[in-house]
Design brief:
The structure is a single chain. The chain is an alpha/beta fold. The chain has 9 helices and 9 strands. It has 2 domains: about 1-175, 3-Layer(aba) Sandwich (Rossmann fold), CATH 3.40.50; about 185-280, 2-Layer Sandwich (Pantoate--beta-alanine Ligase, Chain: A,domain 2). Helices cover about 40% and strands about 20% of the residues. Helix 6 (about 125-140) crosses helix 7 (about 150-165) and helix 8 runs antiparallel to helix 9 (about 220-230). It is globular, with a radius of gyration of 19 Å. The model has no long low-confidence stretch (mean pLDDT about 95). Bound molecules: pantoate. Pantoate (PAF) binds near residues 28, 61 and 153.
C-alpha cells in the first residue's frame, strides 16, 4: 500500500490511472476506521483495479461548538486496517495542503442540506460537499463508495454528483452493526459503557417501528409518537428527530408507502448518534 500526502501527487497518480484505463474505487473517510468503513474498502477492492482511501478530518464540516479537535485520530491503526482490506493508496493530506492559504470557493448543499442533520448542524453539508468534491477532483474515481448510516449525506452527495455532472457512479452500502445492533460509528468510542447500553435504544425503536409497520400501522404520526414517548422516558438520551421519509426524495411522509426510510438522531450524553432503516412498504 502506498501512502500519499500531497494533493498534487494524488492528482498526478489519478491522471496516470485514467490514462491507463484503470477503474478506481474511492472511499472517503475521516479515519478512526471501523468495520463499516472496511466493508466499503473491501467492496471497492473487489470491484476496481485500484482502491483509494482518504483519511482527512475536514474542519469545514464541523460547527464551532463541535468535536473537531477531539475527533478520534488513529492513523497507525487506520493504516494497518486499510492495508488488510485491500487499499492500494491511502491519501492523507494535511489541512494546509488541502485548503491552502487562499481557499475561497465552497459548494452549497441546497435544500436537502438544511433538513434533519443540517438543521442541527448548520453548514455541515456544505462542508461535506466541498471536501468531497475536492477529494473527487484529486482522486478521479470511477466509483465513490458511501455508507448508508449517513443516509442524508449519501443522498446529498448523489444529488451533487448528478447536479454537477460528475463522471462517476455512487454506490451506497448497508449499515454495519455491532452484534447487539448498535450501528458502527467512529463516535461510539465516546460512549461510557452505560451510555453504550442506552444507545441501543436507537436501533431498538427503529426495529419496533418496523414491527408495527409489518403489523399494518401506516400513519407516520402514530409510529413517531410511540418512539418519542419511549425515548423521552429514558434519562440521558435526548431525541433530536425521528422521521419517516420517502427513500429517494427524502420528502416527509404522512402515510408510509413504497420505498421508505426511517431516520433517527439523538444525543446520548454529549455524543450525537444517528441511525436509520430502509424498507419497502406494500
Ligand atoms: O462520512 C464522513 O466520514 C465524512 O463526512 C466524509 C464523507 C469523509 C467527508 O469528510
Amino acid at each position: 500500500m502506498r501512502i500519499v500526502k500531497s494533493t498534487k501527487q494524488m492528482q498526478k497518480l489519478a491522471l496516470q490511472w485514467r490514462q491507463q484505463g484503470k477503474s478506481v474505487g474511492f472511499v472517503p473517510t475521516m479515519g478512526a476506521l471501523h468495520d463499516g468503513h472496511l466493508s466499503l474498502i473491501c467492496k471497492a477492492h473487489q470491484k476496481n483495479d485500484i482502491t483509494v482511501v482518504s483519511v482527512f478530518v475536514n474542519p469545514l464540516q464541523f460547527g464551532p461548538k463541535e468535536d473537531f479537535n477531539k475527533y478520534p485520530r488513529t492513523l497507525l491503526q487506520d493504516k494497518k486496517l486499510c492495508e488488510q482490506s485491500g487499499c492500494d493508496v491511502l491519501f492523507i493530506p494535511s489541512v494546509d495542503d488541502f485548503y491552502g492559504d487562499d481557499f475561497q470557493t465552497t459548494v452549497t448543499a441546497g435544500a436537502l442540506g438544511e433538513l434533519l442533520e443540517g438543521a442541527s448542524r448548520p453548514g455541515h453539508f456544505d462542508g461535506v460537499c466541498t471536501v468531497v468534491l475536492k477529494l473527487l477532483q484529486q482522486t478521479l474515481p470511477t466509483v465513490l463508495y458511501l455508507g448508508q448510516k449517513d443516509y442524508q449525506q449519501a443522498c446529498i452527495l448523489k444529488q451533487m454528483v448528478s447536479d454537477l455532472n460528475l463522471p462517476l457512479k455512487v454506490q451506497v452500502l448497508p449499515i454495519v452493526r455491532e452484534k447487539d445492533g448498535l450501528a458502527m460509528s467512529s463516535r461510539n468510542r465516546y460512549l461510557s459503557s452505560h451510555q453504550r447500553e442506552q444507545a441501543l435504544l436507537l436501533h431498538k425503536t427503529l426495529k419496533e417501528m418496523r414491527r408495527r409497520l409489518v403489523l399494518g400501522e401506516r400513519q407516520a404520526a402514530v409510529l413517531k409518537r410511540r418512539t418519542k414517548a419511549q425515548i423521552s422516558a429514558t434519562q440521558g438520551i435526548q431525541l433530536d428527530y425521528v422521521e419517516c421519509l420517502d427513500a429517494s426524495s427524502m420528502a416527509p411522509l404522512k402515510r408510509l408507502k413504497g420505498a421508505v426510510v426511517i431516520l433517527i438522531a439523538a444525543k446520548v450524553g454529549k455524543t450525537r448518534l444517528i441511525d436509520n432503516i430502509r424498507l419497502n412498504v406494500p
